[in-house]
Design goal:
39% of the residues lie in helices and 14% in strands. The protein is built from eight helices and seven strands. It starts with 15 loop residues before the first strand and ends in a 19-residue tail after the last strand. The chain is globular. Strand 4, helix 4 and strand 5 form a beta-alpha-beta unit. The protein has 269 residues and is of the alpha/beta class.
């Protein structure tokens, strides 16, 4: 198999990968891109039927593994299954996340905890379990965490997600320093405004937020899903062998806007 994204020096950094959030959106797209490049891929998500549909799109190089990344035991079981097929998995992509649009005063403690669980606690559990056997064996590896272009910016209506993504960025930098001397690279891919299944049903479902975001993107449009694949391929390739603790922002310049959402705030209730 060949991939238009992995050419020349952009060769995958390893031949086995695990992708969380692999049943849809950017996780699905990256899983298929890696499979097209000849990488053995394990896709992880909560709904097996959707994972199986992704696996069916490949030539047999994608294996579905059902797990909720908020459940440490389920994460351990998924990695154990992947490792049984060939030892520690050197490449990791964490695209699993979760959020909903709400005014901060309307977010319940449970709702806040659920988003932080999906976007920060869960990714830490995935990173920790991925790294353990690699560190023990002295095997190099590379992880790419999907974050947000606005992780360090104000996002009205997503205080819970903003807090979680900012924490994820700090976690990435800390682990890059801690694990770098032992051969592990940790980087972040930070998308801006993209039209995806999840975003269209969430953030972009409120028209004024959609329009305000569009008005504040210097390139004047939302991103196309395949525009994330080139930067992702770089971070997962041998060409990025000297890159760690970095955030690659893909957002049409949105994060540079003084007010990414203008003066729009989400409705109450």
């Amino acid at each position: 198999m060949s991939s238009p994204y992995f050419q020349g020096p952009w060769v995958p950094a390893a031949d086995r990968a695990l992708v969380t959030g692999g049943s849809s959106g950017i996780g699905r797209d990256i899983a298929l891109m890696l499979a097209d490049a000849g990488v053995e891929v394990f896709v992880v998500g909560r709904r097996m039927e959707r994972l199986e549909a992704v696996a069916a799109e490949s030539d047999g190089s994608i294996t579905p593994l059902a797990a909720d990344i908020r459940d440490a035991d389920a994460v351990d079981a998924a990695f154990t299954a992947a490792e049984a097929a060939g030892g520690p998995v050197p490449l990791l992509v964490n695209a699993a996340s979760g959020a909903f649009l709400a005014a901060a005063e309307d977010i319940s403690p449970g709702g806040f905890a659920a988003v932080v669980g999906s976007s920060l606690n869960g990714p830490f559990q995935v990173l920790r379990r991925w790294a353990q056997p690699l560190l023990e064996a002295g095997t190099p590896g590379a992880a790419m965490m999907v974050s947000s272009a606005l992780a360090e910016r104000e996002v009205p209506g997503a205080a819970h997600s903003s807090a979680a993504k900012a924490g994820l960025e700090a976690l990435i930098r800390s682990l890059a320093v801690e694990w770098g001397p032992r051969g592990l690279r940790i980087n972040s891919l930070a998308p801006g405004a993209f039209s995806t299944e999840g975003a269209d049903a969430g953030m972009w479902s409120f028209g004024p937020v959609h329009d305000a975001a569009l008005d504040n993107i210097p390139l004047g449009r939302f991103g196309a899903s395949d525009e994330l694949l080139g930067p992702a391929a770089f971070l997962l390739s041998r060409a990025a062998g000297y890159v760690t603790g970095a955030t690659v922002v893909v957002d049409g310049g949105w994060h540079l806007s003084p007010h990414p959402f203008g003066s729009v705030f989400p409705p109450r209730g």
